From TrEMBL:
Residues 48-82 form a coiled coil. This is DUF881 domain-containing protein. It comes from Mesobacillus zeae. Gene3D superfamilies: Protein of unknown function DUF881. Belongs to the UPF0749 family. Keywords: Coiled coil.
Length: 235
């Protein structure tokens, strides 16, 4: 009986040793795997850290380059604004020059406007002074001045274009414009806003009423196409 108990104890001890050995081996293997796993994680972390540092460096470079680009764009934008201002100045100068050339009669002009016709009044045998119903230079002056005031860009009398220094002289039944004589009726053409020019001449108590009171026959027609050639250069 004692011998059997001893054998049973040996078996139990053997099983305990076997289990203990298995546990020790398993623990060692697990510890080794964990250690190896940690080593792999460390390498990966180092690689990740290196890539992260490179990314940060590239982002800093990109940020620096972007700042430089923004600065250059600001400079270019300022230069473009300056050029735009200069271009506008040159455009305004060119436009003003063209207007002056037009007012001086140096260039051909074409556009809409009005044609005003001034004719001598009807003959009255009872009228002793014939000049009382003839068109005189002051009648023509009134029309011309009112047209310019109303914004006419160019004016002509019987097709002869007026300059800034033109003169008109009355010589009996004819008028002389810059040395050229013109008989009645006198057609005064003007390029500009036809509606404005028409209103300026037909205002109550204005030029038309004054001429009619002087027994001048007054007529006005709006025209869509008026052309005036440049004033010939004097030799």
């Amino acid at each position: 009986m004692k011998k059997k108990l001893i054998n049973n104890n040996r078996v139990v001890l053997s099983l305990v040793g076997l289990v203990l050995g298995f546990m020790i081996a398993f623990s060692f293997r697990l510890t080794q795997d964990e250690t190896q796993g940690h080593r792999i994680s460390d390498r990966q972390w180092e690689q990740t850290l290196s890539l992260r540092n490179e990314l940060i460096e590239q982002e800093e470079k990109n940020s620096s380059l972007q700042k430089q680009l923004d600065k250059q764009q600001d400079v270019i934008s300022g230069q473009e604004k300056d050029l735009a201002k200069e271009a506008q100045v040159f455009f305004n100068l060119a436009e003003d020059t063209e207007k002056y050339r037009m007012y001086l009669g140096k260039v051909k002009v074409q556009g809409k406007g009005v044609a005003v016709k001034l004719s001598d009044g009807e003959y009255d045998p009872k009228e002793e002074n014939i000049n009382n119903y003839l068109v005189h230079e002051h009648h023509v002056f009134k029309v011309v001045n009112e047209l310019y005031i109303a914004g006419a860009s160019a004016v002509a009398i019987n097709g002869q274009r007026l300059a800034h220094n033109s003169y008109i002289i009355c010589d009996g039944p004819v008028i002389t414009v810059d040395g050229y004589q013109h008989p009645a009726p006198f057609e005064i053409t003007a390029i500009g806003d036809a509606k404005v020019l028409d209103s300026a001449l037909n205002i109550t108590g204005g030029v038309k009423d004054q001429l009619v009171n002087d027994r001048i026959i007054f007529s006005l027609e709006k025209q869509d196409d008026i052309t005036m050639e440049p004033i010939p250069e004097k030799k």
